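Need tokens for this chain, all 408 residues.
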Amino acid sequence: MNRPAATRKFGEKREAIVQAAAVLINEVGVQATTLAEVARAIGLNATSVTYYFPRKEQLVVAVYDQTLTLMENIAREALAQENPAARLRHFIAAHVTLRQRIRAGEHGLTTALSEIRTLEPEVQDPLMAHYLRIVDLVRRFFGEWSSNGQRALFSARAHILLEAMMWWPVWSMRYSVLDFARIEERLFDVLAHGLPAQRGTYAPQPLSGSWRTSDDDDASQNEAFLRAATVTINERGYRGASVNRIAESLNVTKGSFYHHHEAKDDLVLACFQHSYDRLSTVQIAGRDIGVDYWTRLTSVLAELVDLQFFDRTPLLRTTALQALDAEHKVGVVTRSNRLARRFAGMLIDGIADRSVRAIDPLVAGQVIMSTVNSAYEARHWAARFDPPEAATRTYLSVMSEGMLAPSG
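Here are the structure tokens for all 408 residues:
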């Protein structure tokens, strides 16, 4: 007779452990989260936690599975809506509501997925398969595809939408929950309909500058470290990008690494600095050409996305933020917000010269940041296009046309 009560108690305790671990992973990352810290957070001893999760990896998987299941449920609910516009609106609303619940004090609802890539393959592979199921659901928001080109377009829309929703928790902190309803509407407007005053306008101009990686391998050793670290962190996450792995990719010793950087965190910060310097340089190069502001912005975006798709040194993914301590994280987010505001400034100038329609430039600036940042993850998708420029044009059609533009 006591079995249901015991089963319920077991489930409640297990859920409390998963929620506590989710909070810690969000705050300090996977590596710094220990079973002892999780136990302390909910008033248990470590032995009690190991009764439910004998190994830390099992707990980490449970935490990520919880978030992925939540995301999948949201996607399925959205897909059940009657048309693409209703699906997009439902999906955005659900993510805004989720953030509102978290602001209200609910803990452990979601976990940033950035460190899944740091896990060992036998643990990572099932989680990545789960995420790809979510991508497929979101891709179907826009209808059934009738060609490979249409499927590629819907894949780009799904990728950009998911990344925008995963970036939203970072910049939502700048807004009161009293403004969330308005932000939800503005997010839908930007993603659904794009940015230019004349829908579909896309005529990027060539930009000149020194942000590209040279093909002659004459970079300094420090530049080579930045390149190797950026690529390794993007592919394997912070924890997976060990000093040994970075040094081995360059065929140098660990001692050589520490000659340039006192610790790996210093290298991550240097990678962010290098990436943001390059992004800023491209922004300025595009901002100052003598055309309307939508064309200036399009030129910047085309250059940045092409760099993310095809350059040997991409920009560092913002997923590396989670591994930084609070003090350094604030500085990196502040720089990111400044770059987003520069995009917003270009949009404001575009509204003034009537090349950009009346949208919320602050919201659109953040969508642009997540779109550029996440382009690296679409490299394999982009490699299928011939000519390569078609990949950039298709990807940026979300900005130039919106997700609800006809795709036939």
